[in-house]
Specification:
9 helices; disordered C terminus; 178 residues; 2 domains; single chain; mainly alpha
Length: 178
Amino acid sequence: MFETLMNLVQQQAGQSVINNPAIPNSQNESVMQTVASSILSGLGQQAQGGGLGNLLGMVVNGGNVQQSPVTQGVQSHVEQNLMEKLGISPQVAMSVAGALVPMVLSKLMHKASDPNDSSVDGNSILGAATGQQGIDWMGMAGSAMADGKLDMNDLLRVATQQGGGGLGGMLGGLFGGR
């Protein structure tokens, strides 16, 4: 998963990192690695901070990644890490994160939904974000979204059907139930 993210960041980093006069060339690789690792940890923060439904909806539907609360949260996380870990100014960090995060997440979601691309899928994205590998997230999402959208009622219905395991167990863990 990290390798896929890193490749996407490298592909998109032209103007915002590599050709950015505010970022010394010697820092380009560090910036790209920080962005990729921060996107991954930011997805984890979103999943564990009550945004699992939004993240699941983004993975399942693709939708407007640009306007997603998940994207906004991850973007903020990337900005913070660029400033804290690399000492990049707030303006440059905002510019880099604003250019890269929505584009990288959009491409990641596209890759996840592309049946001809086996580098990443919805289960691997959600597994990496939640730390819960080996769960059929997409199968559970499909049954949860019987009405075509994902909301808390759908999540609660799946939790009840799962009898405390699967997504129900995960949600219980997120909200202190286990």
